[in-house]
Specification:
The structure is a single chain. The strands form two sheets. Strands 1, 2, 3, 5, 6, 7 and 8 form a seven-stranded antiparallel beta sheet that branches. This protein is of the alpha+beta class and 136 residues long. Helix content is 27%, strand content 44%. Strand 5 and strand 6 form a beta hairpin. The chain has a single domain, classed as Jelly Rolls (Sandwich), CATH 2.60.120.
Length: 136
């Protein structure tokens, strides 16, 4: 199954809340995400290599058709592209970027590519939310 078909199937299922915290420093942006145990995570496609830190927890990550088990604390570089993981223990995961930009929309445009499936799903949610607000 390709990433888009997998993503479409995953987006059709109930979604799990994965809170994000953003940190900024001189020439530094850190995007931190809490990933709850027993969830599957399919990330957006990163445009370039990315520094990552698994602060705590354990996950199984699919890399080049091979499953790798990683456990925090663990710091590593990942290649450009998408990653699929199964979260074995609650995780705190960080992506680290070198930039002075602080606008979250611009940061997403700079570092990740969202798939057509994700964009269509997000647009549909926005339309539904707008219609529900108008009904009230």
């Amino acid at each position: 199954m390709n990433h888009l078909a997998l993503e479409e199937k995953m987006l059709s299922e109930p979604q799990v809340e994965c809170p994000v915290t953003n940190y900024f420093g001189p020439n530094l942006y850190i995007r931190e995400t809490f990933l709850p145990k027993n969830t599957y995570v399919l990330g957006h496609s990163h445009k370039a290599e990315t520094m990552n830190i698994l602060l705590k927890g354990k996950m199984a990550v699919l890399v080049d058709d091979e499953v790798k088990l990683i456990e925090g604390p663990f710091t590593f570089m990942s290649e450009a592209g998408r990653k699929l993981a199964y979260i074995l223990e609650d995780c705190i995961f960080q992506n680290v970027y070198s930039t002075d930009e602080t606008d979250l929309e611009k940061l997403e445009d700079m570092f990740i590519e969202k798939s057509k499936v994700w964009i269509e799903q997000s647009d549909m949610k926005k339309i539904i939310n707008k219609l529900c607000k108008e009904e009230i």
